[in-house]
Amino acid sequence: MKRLLGLYGLPQSDIVKFLDAARAFKPALLETPPRTFNTLQGKTVVLAFFENSTRTRTSFELAIRRLGGSTLNFTAASSSLQKGETLLDTIANIEAMQVDAFIVRHGDSGAADIVARFTDKVVINAGDGTHEHPTQALLDMFTLRETFGKLSGLRVLILGDILHSRVARSNIFGLRTMGAHVSVCAPPTLLPPFVEALDVTVYHNLSDALQNADAAIVLRLQLEREAAGYIPSIREYNHFFALTDESLSALSEKIFVLHPGPVNREIELSSVVTDRDDSSGKSESLILTQVTNGVAVRMAVLSLLLANSEV
Ligand code: NCD
After folding, report:
1. What is the dihedral of CA 47, 50, 56, 57, to 10 degrees?
2. Residue 136 beta carbon below 6 angstroms from any ligand 1 atom
């Protein structure tokens, strides 16, 4: 495999391969100092981020360095794209400098796919528009599998701005392939049309949705993608759809809370629920565990795609 553009159609055996490889890398990350490898020795990976990112870029960068590879950082804001150069010309020019892989983030759905058709180098989609964000979903699935021991039969709720979320789409495809039950909860305007066709259960009422879930992946209201225009007001959204101690109060069992970040505190998630990482409450946040696991998952993806090696 030379590309990871999405989880749609990716066989279960490939997902398991990524998750198992990540599990093998995780102990090395927790050593002090973290253990490094030379799997990517001599390889240069381009971080082609045409859209903002904190976690995903730094996570890929650390993963590449811990595998002994070098990174080339590229940001759209300071590049010749501002002077009118096309995406493919930019990629062609960087490729001419002899690099081995492109990690692409772009505001347009399909951008990573276009890059992958153009170059025969390794291409990894780090989020394209509202389409897919496969490594985020893999790290979410890794975190759930680590917490619950398995994905099959697990009841995972995805809550929030599903319409604009590439994270939701990748998780729906990946989790369904792994045999998890997926439900979504959002105002009807923040759900994609015909979302039932993705084999998910749809809720518009948060307490009903929570009663039937072992874990909730909460999503950010994507205000930069016009999400605010799809709801009467942020305050109303917060009242009906935010995960807070009040919305959790009717639950009889503890729920595990995930969020891909960045969290809009007090919009989709209360600060208390965001930060509660002890096991005594009605919820337990796995948000920072997800971030730690992200490095292991990206090491797994990079070593399998670039070196065909597992550890
Ligand atoms: C997400 C993204 O950019 O797709 N964040 C991430 O990569 N960790 C989700 C978001 O922006 O809300």
Report:
1. 40
2. yes
For the chain, which residues make up each domain, given as ranges? 3-132+294-306, 134-290
Domains 3-132+294-306 and 134-290 share a fold: yes
Residue 43 Cβ contacting ligand 1 at under 6 Å: no
Summarize pLDDT for 262-297 with one digit per residue, the tens. Answer: 999 999 999 999 999 877 789 999 999 999 999 999
The fold adopted by the segment(s) 134-290 is Rossmann fold (3.40.50)
pTM for the full predicted model: 0.96
pLDDT tens across 69-79, in order?
999 998 777 77
Q: Is 167 touching ligand 1 by the criterion CB < 6 Å?
A: yes
CA terminus-to-terminus distance, the chain: 16
- Residue whose CA is closest, atom 12 of ligand 1? 220
- The candidate with the shortest Cα–Cα distance to 53, out of 133, 113, 150, 120, is 133
CATH number of 3-132+294-306: 3.40.50.1370
CA-51 nearest atom, ligand 1: 3
Q: Evaluate: CB of 160 within 6 angstroms of ligand 1.
A: no
Cβ(24)–Cβ(49) under 8 Å? no
55 C-beta closer than 6 A to ligand 1: yes
